Every structure is written in C-alpha cells, then in structure tokens.
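The methods section describes the discrete structure representation at length, but only in general terms. Since the whole study asks how a given chain folds, the encoding of that fold should be made plain. An entry of this sort, consisting of the sequence and the corresponding backbone structure tokens, reads as follows:

. . .
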Amino acid sequence: MKSIIAIILSLAVFFTTEKNTAPATVNKSESSVMWKAAKVTGEHWGYVPIADATLDYSNGKITGGSFEMDMVNLTVEDLTDPKSKGNLTNHLKSDDFFSVEKFNTASFKITDAKSSNGRDYVISGNLTIKGISQPISFPAKVSTSGNKLTAEGDITFDRTKFDIKFRSGNYFENLADKLIYDDVNLKVKLVASI
C-alpha cells in the first residue's frame, strides 16, 4: 500500500511540474547587453547584440537559461567622431581584446538561480569569452506584466581571466594614464513572453 501511495505522489509531482513549466520566448529586439569599460582617463560604452537567448520559467520563477552575444556586431556608443569610433570598434575586435575573427560569439549559461520572492535573484553560471569559461554570480531583478517577463542583471567580470590583458596594470608596468582597468561591466536586459 505504501509503495502505491509513493507512486501516486511521484506521478502527481511529475505532472504538476510539467503543467507549471513554461519556456519563455526571448524577444531579441527588445533585449540588450550594454558594455562599459574604464581607463585612467575616462570610460567607453556600447552594445553587444543578442544572437540567441532562452529563459526557463517554472512556477513563477526563472530556473535556467542562457544568452549568446554577437561579438562581430559589437558597437561603441560614447564616441561621435566616425574615425575615432571606427578605430576603437576595430581595436576591441582585434587580438588585443576579443579576437572576434576567431571567437565571434560570447555567452552566459545559468547554472543556478536563487530567489526568495521571484523578483530579486542571485544568478550563477558560466561566462564564456574567447573560448574561456569562468564561473560568475551577479544580482538580477525580474518583473512580470501580463505575459511579459523582464529580467535585468548587472555583471562585472575581470577581463584578464579571459586572456584580455592589453594595458592591464596586473601584467604591465609604467602604464601611467595608458592603464585600462581590468573590470568590465555588462548590463543585461532580457525581455520574454511567458
């Protein structure tokens, strides 16, 4: 009798989970990744288009997902002079930085999403840049309105862990005002239908 009850309970849990699981369809045109990096004399920022993204949404909470960034179409938005803008964009795509010819995408895959209220999260996962994966955690906020879900996260990573060492104070001396700080910030916004 106990084994029959256990089987019934297991089936109930299985079917309840299946019923409440809904894959979220990410709208790439409404979603964005904004990058920002700083140096001694100022900072630069721009966008990296989202090539692909998925969010796993179950029982009112994010349970997994991933997004892929199109490094080929990375932009610089803080510069207005076309020549300066083009020079920086091309330099960021070079082997000094993201080696875009060899690695045309970067990605993040969620391994854990912790939330006590379904709104405030600590997201953990693997960030992959230039073929190098590193574990990273960051805070995120999730809101829903009707069938629309918006997830916003603030990722800061050390570029040198991804073999991006150009003008890093940890690898080069006497850089003075040529130094570029190691931390890079990504503000991620994913908008999905649930």
